[in-house]
Amino acid sequence: MTSRLGLVGMPAVALLLVSGVLGVQLAHGGGKFEPLHSADPCVARTVTSQAEGIDALTENLVLLGLDGAACRLGVSREALTLELAQTGPRTDAEIDALRQGLLGAVSRMKADGSLPEASDLVDEALDNTDLNPLVKAAIRALPDSVVNAAVKVDDVLNRTINDLDLRSVLANLDDQQDLNQQMNAAVTQAVKDSLADRFRNLL
Amino acid sequence: MRRAVPPLLALTVAMVLADSAVVTLALPDILRNLDTTVGQVAWVLISFNLVLALVAVPTAVIFGRAQPRIISAIGIAVFAGSSAACALAGSIEVLIAARCVQALGGALALVGCLELLVAVYGERRGVTVWVTAGVVGTAMGPVAGGLLTEAFSWQAIFVVQVPCAVLAVPAALAVRAAPALPLDRHRPAIRPNVTLALLSAALTAALFLLVLLLVDGWRRSPATAALAVSVVPVAALASRPLARLLRTPAEVEVAVGCFLIAGGLAGLAILPSANLAWTVAPQALVGLGLGLTVDRLSSQAMEMRLPRMHHAGWTIGARHVGVVLGLVILTPVFTEDLQDAQVPAQEAITSLVLDAPLRPEDKIAVAEALGQELSEQQGQVPDLHRAFATADLDPAARPAAAQLERDLDEQLERAATRAFRDSFLIGAGLALVALLSVLASIVVPPRRVRS
User: Fold this and answer.
1) How many helices (H) and strands (E) does chain A have?
2) B285 touching chain A per CB within 8 A
3) B410 to chain A nearest CA, in Å?
4) What is the pLDDT of residues B378-406, one digit of tens each?
5) Which of chain A's residues have a Cβ under 8 Å away from the Cβ of B213?
6) In chain A, what percentage of residues exceed pLDDT 70?
7) What pLDDT was estimated at residue B397?
8) B185-451: which CATH topology?
């Protein structure tokens, strides 16, 4: 025999069960369990590094530079990174955006005081060069104030970024040795050019 | 022996209907073992359901005048032989062909066993046992398949069916039952069968997609997935005492069941995390709904309708048309969604690697290993553990790398869960359409069947 409880009870129990389950799930983030969304690359991001010295500087520059380049290209930092990780030709727009992004990163680090002084990097830089040991010793003997006055890190970085063949750098991402050689040559040349300019200005 | 006859016949019915989804959890193993493609391996599932859907009614019509014990015995024997052929299949083509023959034998066995169970138990109880065995088999299929695959191999699924079926052949021959009446006195019950088809399509989302999400998306073992989805059959069994307690009219019970299935599938679409515990309540809703609907609808479609065999053929056909419909609708949706999920997943992984508290050289090592692994595992949710195990990392960086691996795994789980969302929602939509058809039958009641 059908009871009133049967007619109303079961639909009521079902409604209660379904709304209860869905309600609890939604309250615990149901429907939002999705992959991380990429952050807007045009919004300034705070970057940190576990490395020290030149490695930390390079990492921070690359992370901020990627943001700047992605912002210019109108894509996410992650999409640009995945695109740059692929082999194949780079467009002029990508290369230009990357260069401008890196230059913007130097400006931002200079502005917020996170750019190290030349004296903080000189020992590590000398270790990586093949200069005459006597020259290295002479440079190391210079007081920090002299080194900092002679070499401006932002100037060296800007020169390096402007002179660097970014297409070639991106093509050599898989070859660490080749990449290091390329970077060392570009930085050394930038230091030389920077010093020469400063001497010219003094004269 | 005589006391073992009815359970063996019920077991045969459960086994044949379990075969509808029994290979779901074994598909990844079959894919690897038979060196085939995802598209082909899906046919191991589709072929059985499609053939059963197509031959159920013709089988009942053609063999309706034959001795039920003879057609049951032949059907069970063909089913046993083709199950053995499935287990021995060395190629995907042979396996699919054997599955087709298995469905042919299964169709004969199902319609024959109905008549035999009615001969043993009488009309009402016989039909109830036949229907209940089918519901239990359908719900238990993925669980049994998952456990057997994990414990032994995918072939074990078919091997265990052989002795059960072989024992059922003499059991079928032992029952004296008269052939069904030659005249088709009642037209097929359209509404219950249409509702059954729609619900079967919706249940495909629960039984088929959920195990795929657990095994391929969340990378749980087949045994873990099998245990997780056992909530559905347990809840289905629990639904009967609940219905008896509330003494609900059959139509209301079916409507409530459709609503519970829709609610459960909506719950599976909005899981808050990849913790298995979150799947329990939505599955319980689906199981309760399954228990309230499928046997009621099958009974409505067959009750007092003669010849029974024809109407049994219609319900089997409707259920398996529904399964095929579900697979045809849902498979392209979730495969495309899985494809689309790759980009956000890759970007999330890239973001976490870029911002990971690792030294630059360790980040590069992880990125290289991940890139290698991802390119090798195209087309499936990747296992990132090997990338972290093989990456050349500073030992001091291992704890941070382990945390990064956990974070990346969570991103993959998030991407997979998101990819299955639309398919579960479509399943919920199908259950709601079934609910509408039930509500329509409540508003405009079907004409009573003249016996």
Assistant:
1) 11, 0
2) yes
3) 8
4) 666 778 888 888 888 888 889 999 999 99
5) none
6) 95
7) 85
8) Growth Hormone; Chain: A; (1.20.1250)
Residue among A1, A18, A85 whose CB faces B285 most closely = A18
Q: Say how far apart CA B235 and CA A33 lie, in whole Å.
A: 26
Q: Convert the pLDDT of each residue in B87-113 to its tens digit.
A: 999 999 999 999 999 999 999 999 899
Return d(Cα A182, Cα A161) in angstroms, integer. Answer: 12
pLDDT tier for residue A67 given thresholds of 50, 70 and 90: very high
Residue B247: list chain A partners with CB under 8 A. 1-3, 5-6
Report the range out of A172-176, B1-5, B160-164 with the highest average pLDDT.
B160-164
Q: Which fold does the domain B1-180 belong to in CATH?
A: Growth Hormone; Chain: A; (1.20.1250)
Q: Where are the domains of chain A?
A: 53-202
ipTM summary value:
0.84
Q: Is the pLDDT of residue B449 over 70?
A: no
On chain A, the residues whose CB falls within 8 A of the CB of B371 are 85
CA distance A7 to chain B (A): 6
Cβ of B246 within 8 Å of Cβ of A1? The answer is: no
| Measured CA distances, B98 to B20, B139, B238 (Å) | 14, 23, 35
Q: Does B293 touch chain A (CB under 8 A)?
A: no
User: In angstroms, what separates the C-alpha of B412 from chain A's closest C-alpha?
Assistant: 7
Q: Which of B168, B10, B176, B8 is nearest to B74 (CA)?
A: B168
Task: Tell me the per-residue pLDDT of B310-352, one tens digit each, with 9 for 90 and over.
Answer: 888 889 999 999 999 998 888 888 888 888 888 888 899 999 9
